[in-house]
Amino acid sequence: MFDISFTEILVIAVVALVILGPERLPHVARTLGHLFGRAQRYANQVKSDIQREMELDELKKLKIAVQDAAHSMENSMQGQINQVQELADAAEAKSVAATTSVPPGIPAEAAPTSETLATPAKPVKPRSTKPIKSKPTKPLA
């Protein structure tokens, strides 16, 4: 940033020694060192704050890109689900139409309707609930 050679620093030190004197020069040099250190820390802090803000902006942009990709994926998946649902509905309609068609030779009144196909059959009760008794067998000797 500043291009100061060793000879320029030496000239500044000699002038400061002549102007300030040997008693006050160490105190002034120490104070200037502290001020210079504070200035460096402040500059570094400002740099890190700017860097942090830039990274935060990049993360926000990345978040928006990921959210857009997620919405796009969700929309495409919903479209695929809708297509599959339509195909399933069409297949079910064909299946119902095939089961409700009247075979040749059967009167139309005797053919099953969609209402009779939709109602579940009544459960069949077993004839007997008594356990089956078996005869004891004789051991082979």
What's the quick description here?
With 141 residues, this protein is mostly helical.
Description of the structure:
There is one protein chain. Helix content is 71%, strand content 0%. The chain is mainly α. The chain has a domain at 6-93. It is elongated.
What secondary-structure arrangement, pairings included, does this model have?
Blueprint: H1 6-100, H2 114-118
List keywords for this structure.
71% helix; single chain; 141 residues; mainly alpha; 0% strand
> What is the average per-residue confidence, as pLDDT, rounded to a whole number?
82
Largest sheet: none
Measured by DSSP, the beta-strand proportion falls in under 5%
**How helix-rich are the residues, as a percent range?**
over 70%
User: Rg, please?
Assistant: 47 Å
The helix-strand sequence is HH
Please provide the count of β strands: 0
Count of separate DSSP helical elements: 2
Terminal CA distance reads 113 Å
Morphology:
elongated
Report low-confidence residues grouped into runs of 5 or more: none
